[in-house]
Amino acid sequence: MENKNRGFQTSCIHSGEEWNKSGHLSPPICQSTAFEFPNTEEGARRAADIHADEFYGRWGSRNEREFEAIIAALEGAEDAVSTSSGLAAISMVFHALLQPGDHCVAVHNCYSESKILIEELCKQHSVELTMISSEDIENYRNAINPNTKLVYAETPANPTITLVDIQEVSRITKEQSDAIFVVDSTFATPYNQQPLKLGADIVLHSATKYIGGHSDVVAGVCAGNKDLMSKVRKAFSFHGPKLDPFAAWLLCRGVRTLGLRVQKHNENALKIATFLENHPMVNKVYYPFLKSHKQHDVAARQMTGGGGMVCFEVKGGMNSGLSLISNVKLNKMAVSLGGYSSTITHPASMTHNLLPREEREKGGITDGMLRLSVGIEEVEDIQADLENALNQANLVTN
Ligand SMILES: Cc1ncc(COP(=O)(O)O)c(C=O)c1O
């Protein structure tokens, strides 16, 4: 069977198998910094091949290559590059594609540290940066010019679940410039959204989240065509933000069940979002597959499921929000997301506290907002825990 005709979960399980040459069903961890060459010609050949898996540890081992092959297959990409964190993936893409004097368009309503990193990188490298709000398509039309070399978006956005119409932004980017369009698709996962098929040039993920899926590894990955990935791999090989082979092994193990996990995340999150929307203590719920989401039409066009992330605002602002997350038990109070267990966070004081209040508000992050990463427990248990905590938050408000 042609690999590209395989189902998603079959690809999760069987892609990248060619990198396991051991005959072991579970691949060995390649914990070696260097490799013995059989002869001088082979040493020289590997030195000239940036993809070599047995040259030098900083270039990556077969555990990383196996992980990269799986992600390339799931995203429909020619190649992928893995990194030691999601931010490192963003950083390597920016280093690979931008030169002093270039122009870059990025969204300010995204993960706070991505925004800070992009601002710092552009400042340090004399790249002119235009930060826009992501949901209004006119903002892209106004910002992109012939000198624009990189357009950056995150969809759905952390934490507000604001969407970017990937197809439309890709069209505008190509009409108005020769820029590379980069999409952070962490919240969606390749199961729910495949940006390259919608016209993006590079897709990237914090693999720390759903791709790893078990809250036990920090990692990043980006994917695209061979030419772009060679540029990123070159930047990567000099900067050196590589994955540890054990981290790559954990990622391969985690991603083998991505399809199954995300199906359950989708199912549970839609039920929880619906429950919250009907709860008297809740002012507003942000979930792409709720009809009330202001960009529901975009979600229906470009996503096959809403994902596991639900954002909501409780009545009573900061106090009742903090009361709620102090009283949940099953839903653990923690940052990060995308693991098998449900977690809840208060963006204003936790994930996005590095941003000043006015910047948070500009990005739609209010003090009473909570962000839920709906896990794959039985949904009745997640809901019962939230219901109990909402009742207690109600007591604080009244
Ligand atoms: C959407 C998104 N992109 C990128 C990152 C950064 O990833 P990492 O923490 O793996 O560096 C995060 C982290 O939360 C994120 O939520």
**Rg (C-alpha, Å):** 21 Å
Number of helices: 15
Give a short account of the largest sheet: 7 strands, mixed
Query: Unreliable stretches, pLDDT < 50, 5 or more residues?
Result: none
**Arrangement of strands in the largest sheet:** 1-7-6-5-4-2-3
Task: Give me the count of strands.
Answer: 12
Global outline: globular
Mean pLDDT: 95
What does this structure look like?
The protein is globular. The chain contains 15 helices and 12 strands. The longest helix is centred in the last third of the chain and has 20 residues, at 258-277. The model has no long low-confidence stretch (mean pLDDT 95). With 398 residues, the protein is an alpha/beta fold. The strands form 2 sheets. The chain has a 7-stranded mixed β-sheet, sandwiched between helices. Strands 8-9-12-11-10 form a 5-stranded mixed β-sheet. It has helices at residues 8-14, 40-47, 62-75, 86-97, 112-124, 137-143, 166-176, 189-192, 226-239, 245-255, 258-277, 296-302, 317-327, 357-362, 379-397; strands spanning 79-83, 103-107, 128-132, 148-154, 180-184, 202-206, 220-224, 282-286, 309-314, 332-333, 343-345, 369-373. Helix 5 links the parallel strand 2 and strand 3. 41% of the residues lie in helices and 15% in strands. It binds pyridoxal-5'-phosphate (PLP). Residues 85-87, 111, 114, 154, 158, 184, 186-187, 206, 208, 218, 220 line the site of pyridoxal-5'-phosphate (PLP).
